[in-house]
Prior knowledge:
Elements: E1 6-9, H1 18-21, E2 26-30, H2 33-36, H3 39-51, E3 53-57, H4 66-75, E4 83-88, H5 90-102, H6 110-114, E5 124-129, E6 141-146, E7 151-156, E8 164-167, H7 177-196, H8 202-224, H9 229-248, H10 253-265, H11 269-284, H12 289-296, H13 308-325, H14 342-350, H15 353-356, H16 365-373
Parallel strand pairs: 1-8, 2-3, 2-4, 4-5, 5-8
Antiparallel strand pairs: 6-7
Amino acid sequence: MTINSTVISGYQTLNDIGYLLQNHQHVLLVTDKNIAGIAAVQQLIGQLRSTTTLSIVDTVPPEPSQHDVAAVVTSLQVQNVDLVIGVGGGSVLDVAKLLSVLCCTGAPSLDALLAGEKPQRRTASLLIPTTAGTGSEATPNAILAIPEKETKVGIISPVMLPDYVILAPELTTSMPAHIASSTGIDALCHLIECFTATVSNPVSDNYALIGLKKLFTSLETAVADPKNLAARLDMLWASYYGGAAIAHAGTHLVHAMSYPLGGKYHIPHGVANAILLAPCMRFVRPAAVGKFAQVYDLLPDADASLSEEEKSVALVDYFAALVKRLKLPASLDELGINADHLPYLVEAALDVQRLMKNVPAPVSANDVRKVYLTLFPALNH
């Protein structure tokens, strides 16, 4: 898959995007109410209003369902839109990508897309992430919750990759620490899962290693010092590289097992991934010792004297310690989910075959159950 997006990055790059708007008359801006209130986004809205006909959708919820997107399509006259701009976190960007397809005359319906029909074209699009985690601006995926089935579904097509991406670090400085932490761990999961997936390849590996290097040196600084624009920009790039790695490879066990946690229990995606990161990587490690050792060598305080086996173990320990340092939950007990839900969780995770087939080791129902069990510490004593 080729990513043809033009990426523009750096402080205040939003101030001069007039040249991107020259050939567009009707712009659809997709965001949420919190993001719409950021000063830089208000300036962007002013810029758009002065040069184009502007429609705004600012009602995208944190974990959008197919009903949320259907409601937007019904309420909005989208046929004459010739540029879709998404400004926000992964949910907003996913919805913007879908709307860029649904705005086209003769486009498949949302139901058809959910049933597997592939879009052939889309309206011009520009994506501007305000969190450093999903990498949605670089993936061909749009993830929607399906409440009736208590899970999530991915609509996937390279057609949805945008024309332009803007990485502006000042848009991420208002993120609360817990959001910066959980979205950063989401990016880490994308990078390490794609690097170790059965479908990994030299292109995805290259993106993953560059992204991991940036993430390891910048995540904790970005969380502790929100105004550090260099760290914030590094995290935006780490997130972008994670998305690019997904576009060329794919995630696996962490994401498969986190889907039911989001779909049924509405645990934020980054938090669900943080809980699962170390336990899933502990399971995967024996099948990916060499690659784990390679990633360990990117850590700022890596010990070069360790053997590959020791490095792989140390990397998993680092992941567990990082989640703890970032003050993210490390168990389902902490979130009020008890072990009675294990049968459902195991079945729902195994149902995500699109991702399970990427795990670099055979995975049985008992394996999945054992990993989930580690998330209930009271049962392990």
